[in-house]
Predict the structure.
Amino acid sequence: MVNEGRSKEGRVLKTRFSEKDSREFFENEYPPLYRYAFYLTGEQGLAEDICQEAFIRWFSLERTNEIEMPRAWLKKVLSRLAISNYRHQKVRNAVETRLADDQIKYVDRGFEQLEVEDILSHLPWRDQILLKMKMAGSSYQEMAEAAGIAPGSVGTLLARAYKKVRQEYSEEGRRQTHGMSRPGKIVTLHG
Amino acid sequence: MGCPDQGKLLLYMDKELTEHEMLQTELHLKTCPDCRLVLQDLHLDLELARNLIGPWQKQAEMAPVPDNRQAWDSINRQVLVRKRGNKYMKIKKWAVACSLVLAFGMVLTVPSLRAAAGNLLQVFRVDKVSSISLSQDEMKQISEAIKSGDPNIDFNNYGKFESIGQQSSSELTAEQVKALAFAVKLPEGAWDAQNKLTLDKFPEMRVTPKVEKINQLLTALGSTELMPASLDGKTFAIKTNDMVTLRTPGYILSQGLAPTVDAPDDVDVNRLVQAMLAVPIWPENVERQMRAIDDWQHTLVVPGADAKKVDINGVPGVLSQADGISQLVWQDQGILFLMVNQPGSSTDILQAARSMR
């Protein structure tokens, strides 16, 4: 953090709260928000990006004191960002499948994440996020807002997602019994 | 009622339906074994999803949080840039208000060579730029001093402000640029790039003071000098000529024939200057700078924090700063030049200005 910048920024942020308060708020709220972003997207880089954007939107608000639950507000914005990122995700997947094997490295990820991503990767990106939101206890209203759809449509999307998960789960079971390798989608790009 | 689709059954399962729909679905389920099966399946699906995603959720909750210093820097920088953008707009508005007041100041002076009697108007053309450097504190002092005379100051009480015509901007073709009344000058490199020039037109500003109201304020402020009653209802017109503007990622450059002010001929403007300077609202430093301007009617006064005089290839200009944004104003052979950094850009506009040809 550059000192000179800080004093200026402090002055700019003072209309809402002081530099110290802003930093404190950021330090308190960053870890839970980042973890939620990581949970939803499964990718560190993407999680960091959307987290940062959510905070930028927060600090750009004229009157933050009118927002009763800042953490809920941040999560709401973040979910929306995570879903609207699906186009980017589609592009990435397309690039990944085109790349040669030696350009792709398997990443050290936890078993749970691999398992879940394997199965969820067959769902549209939006449905993956909605499913994870639902599992994290989000209301239908929150999911509808994040996806920009009617709350009634959330049920249809979720029901479809459940079915797909079940179907993929049994297929995954069959693949593993027959000694097939995991699909190549659980990879990430390096370099 | 026909069989509800899975989406609706899921809403039922999650108790997200209206009371009436809940009841309806419940009744239907009692009579429809197929739907009961679907619902049972949904319960299993939910259970499976929970079993799959639950552990990942727990793992993510414990995930190491990456270093967020860079994020904080970036957030600050971006919020700051946006805020700067707003602030810049405010400064611009403020500058417009000040220009009005100061343009007023320009016409408040007795022209040393009064045009022939019978002239309806005196036309002043800017041929110099000068600066008044005032700090935030001094600005605050002035505004507080004015508020002591009128706590809810509203400019409309003190005069009629009109703008005639519309502001517009249109792209210029190379032929149109050549056909302009003056030769456009651009910084080195700007000619080569595929930069588009626009022609910006500005409305004419007309100011008609309400002398009685102004004098009430001046009296309230403790001024002994008042504005002459003869000025009441007289209109001053500030004409900004068409400006040619170049926008690059680093800066915005505008140039055009210098603005003029048309003032009524039959007023003793000298008294106005004295009246303005006599109002005890000016911090000493500001008053001294204002008194040092000896040729108000031909000088465009640029107020700004940290304003300083600079030399642009032998022509004097004013460079001022506002929260990291530099603004450069100068006048050369009847053409007024304004150059402003784009928010967040570090382009050295003084250097760019010096490279203009």
User: Anything to note?
Assistant: The first helix of chain A runs from residue 3 to 13. Residues 1-16, 94-108, 179-191 of chain A have pLDDT under 50 and may be disordered. The first strand of chain A starts at residue 104 and ends at 105.
